[in-house]
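Quick one - inputs below.
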Amino acid sequence: MARIPVESFVLGPAQGATLQRQVQDAVTRGVLAGRMRPGDRMPSSRALARHLGLSRITVTLAYADLVANDYLVSRGRSGTFVSPNAPTPAPVPRAARPARGGVDWSRALGQRFPDPAPLARPADWRRYPYPFIYGQTDQRLFDHGNWRRCALQALGSRDFGPLSEDAYARDDPYLVEQITTRILPRRGIDARPEEVLVTMGAQNALWMAAQVLLTQRRTAVMERPCYPALREILQLGRCIAQEVAVDGGGLPPGQVPEGADVLFVTPSHHCPTGVTMPLARRRALLALAERREMLIVEDDYEFELGFVTPPLPALKSLDRTGRVIYIGSFAKSLFPGLRLGYLVAAEPVIRELRALRGLVLRHVPGHVQRTAAYFLAQGHWDAQVARMTRAFRDRRAAAQAAMDTHGLAPARANAFGGSSFWMRAPEGVRAIDLADRLRARGVLIEPADAFFSDPRPGPFYRLAYSSIASEDIPEGIARIARETARLAGSAQAVWP
Amino acid sequence: MARIPVESFVLGPAQGATLQRQVQDAVTRGVLAGRMRPGDRMPSSRALARHLGLSRITVTLAYADLVANDYLVSRGRSGTFVSPNAPTPAPVPRAARPARGGVDWSRALGQRFPDPAPLARPADWRRYPYPFIYGQTDQRLFDHGNWRRCALQALGSRDFGPLSEDAYARDDPYLVEQITTRILPRRGIDARPEEVLVTMGAQNALWMAAQVLLTQRRTAVMERPCYPALREILQLGRCIAQEVAVDGGGLPPGQVPEGADVLFVTPSHHCPTGVTMPLARRRALLALAERREMLIVEDDYEFELGFVTPPLPALKSLDRTGRVIYIGSFAKSLFPGLRLGYLVAAEPVIRELRALRGLVLRHVPGHVQRTAAYFLAQGHWDAQVARMTRAFRDRRAAAQAAMDTHGLAPARANAFGGSSFWMRAPEGVRAIDLADRLRARGVLIEPADAFFSDPRPGPFYRLAYSSIASEDIPEGIARIARETARLAGSAQAVWP
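Output:
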């Protein structure tokens, strides 16, 4: 029952915590390390405040919170003491570090996986003045206030019971209702709740679809170029993976090889070039799928950003036989760190996918689902999409104007909109070299080599306007044009 | 530029929403359905309030919020109008429902997955007066207030940037720090951040470990009985799966078959029987693993609930050669719907697991990680564990006393604690029949058939005290004893 000296209090690194919290942390650390024991007497708030150079009210509030959480007890005039119910420190001593080299991991590991596609963006991309980077949320456009309110609502005690449970057999019915009534009708898709599965984003949906639909003897067709993670999924999976090059209208049905079983396509606007598949070609692709008994996995990423012309109906909306498995995501309209998407398919497919998801991860966290459900139900999602669409239209126009001024042009016409242009560096210039040079000048672009299966660096890059303000675009484009011209001037013809 | 009649307003089903929110929803539904168009004039708040039978302030607040979100604009005395910036309705008409029977799914599906283990608990288990069900959070014990505060902190604008990003290459460093400095030392494990992977719960960790460590030619050993999802993972995976029966000290090393490559064990207290592996056996198992070059996957679920005797050091803490892959979870100490766990292993293993996770789901949602990090950092997790431990100790004592009174006894001595007893119905009584009878009497128990690979219903069941109040336990046990006696009286000897 010692008296704890004020000298034993040292505030740790701030980590963005308030002073009150830092005081609390110092106490919990002391208790958990066994330095402060049940019954020990705390310094008076006055003495501790003086020692730490804080106001007394800060320490008083910290003590009050610690009392509320049963770390401390207050015994009126006698003072404040470590609670008899305070958590006890770890009973087990730390073991010595394991000896190195006990296992030959090159033999012990059963399967190896490719490194995730190298990141084209540096971790500190937000510090660059001209970040033409793709797929990250622009905080200036995100309705953070309403998102937080919806999250708070989902965190309320009324929702806590059901959301805290293990719920692998079903998704949040409220979110599924929002998806079927508010989102899918925009794409012309009429789905029942039993035909929807909530996923950890679009990539998780693609991965699961590949597992359920393919076998070692089946052939999957992907577009060329292709979303790198999908290519890795198919190349690793037990299937025969083939590529078909896209043209200005997306995947040409005539090029689909005989014997293909499952096609993975992005008709709304191809990833990454942004070209849109015309309606006639969509119908032709569906007819082909029916004739040859193929299945189609449609990744409708970013459909909500079709602002140049209204998006064509999803393939899934034209599908009369249930051959299309449709994938959507909230990564762009909400944010990618949320990991939330959905998949629409015939019930037998959903059944297998749900069972697979149950084995792999059980379900998407309940609060994540419910927060998004509230955000949708209250109309914030629609407003958010409207706000992004307006901003992206302006940014696209600014980029187009600046490119016109400086004699740059996208490599593919994009009548859809979206959040990026597909660019090609001139003859002899490698996109990675251009990106290196530009980075030193405060400009970030994304070399597109990872979208191709060839190992050799190529000329293509992606110029995204989803994270850069309109007013910064002209100068950014000017710098790209300047560095492009410099590199082209010194380039040798490395392209055949 | 029509005037919108009050009659077009109908409040939808409440779904727990406030009246103000229901008014807002009615407007956003009208806008998104195209019934209310930009420039249309809204009814006055007075008229709409009268029509809906609400107070005028409710409607005024709803309008104000809709103005803030740019669904409406207020033009002073002229009235309130649908904003020119309001989201536009879906441009695409709904497609007709796909024709049925276009695809023969029995042929089209490449892989089938077992139904997730049938739920032993009914969805409305909270309504039963005597729910001896396992693994769900008791809201009376969960520190909901501080969890919500930590979630709010993680949802703040300071954290939003990093947490909103796609971050598949790394986990939240703040959570990893809490795991390595606050949790693992309790288990005697000294791990560097590079040796930790954050997972979607323990099951996700088990699944990933199986993918990375096993191949078609390798042999996995599981305990018998065994966590059902692990058995499904191993039986589906590309490996040879074998069972070894546990005795009163867990998995007997002498029974491990020659040629085993990876052992999946629960030494702290076996799942589901609760027996603890003695220290000598842990050392023998490790020595065997080194001699035969086996790897061990240690699922340390519920370690924080070892309150009868302090938990023995984790296998991982005794491991000198890096052969042990350690799995922990927040499902019990926080809640299962959170889907949060962690895995500790040698760096080469973590590298493959991270790459696999990147392909399958990219990463655990940022806010989920950060909320847990704050909860840990502020000492709430330790306090939570202390609170649960006290409550479970009381409940366990109440259950033991009631069993003594009624002549029931656990089938396995459990010196650990945890949240359940392992029970065996008398000769000739099937646990599913006992559970059926009890359900009609307000008592839920969990037949343990899913823990065995035999198809035949057996006598074992799990009696968990993690979701039932101490004061309800004696009557619940009395009913179990009564129904057990009735069934035993009428039983024929169906066990060999």
